[in-house]
Amino acid sequence: MTFSQVILGPLAYLVDTVLGLYTIVVIAAVVVSWLIAFGVLNMQNHLARQFVQVLNALTEPVFRQVRRVIPPIGGLDLSPIIVLIGIELLRVFFGNLFLYLATHI
How many CB atoms within 10 Å of residue 96? Predict the structure, then answer.
């Protein structure tokens, strides 16, 4: 087995998986925020409150950094959309990087 098969293959898979999971977390945070805004999700429920706290802990640090650069426009928070675009750009970048390294090492 070559270096690229032993190291780069699993590393590429790990990076892509982590970014894919974070995409799901961002989408879940958006959907849950809508459910809260429309009164579908009861925040008095302990389990729901804990779920929202976990989602906020995972997404708010990244959203906050984006909001520093692009604040909400007319009450519309664009940070989740920008984060999702950024994640996809990172997936393409790392995918191409690992492919390049695998073919040139």
Answer: 10
The pTM of the full predicted model, rounded to 2 decimals, is 0.91
Q: Provide mean pLDDT across the span 73-87.
A: 97
**What confidence tens digit (pLDDT) does each residue in 28-45 have?**
999 999 999 999 999 999
With H, G, I as helix, E, B as strand and everything else as coil, classify residue 78: coil
Q: Which residue has the tokens 């675009």?
A: 85
Check residue 7 and report its DSSP letter: I
Tokens at residue 54, please? 């976990």
Q: Which value, to the nearest 10 degrees, does the dihedral of the CA atoms of residues 72, 78, 83, 84 take?
A: 170
The 8-class DSSP code of residue 44 comes to T
Q: From CA 51, how far away is CA 24, in angstroms rounded?
A: 14
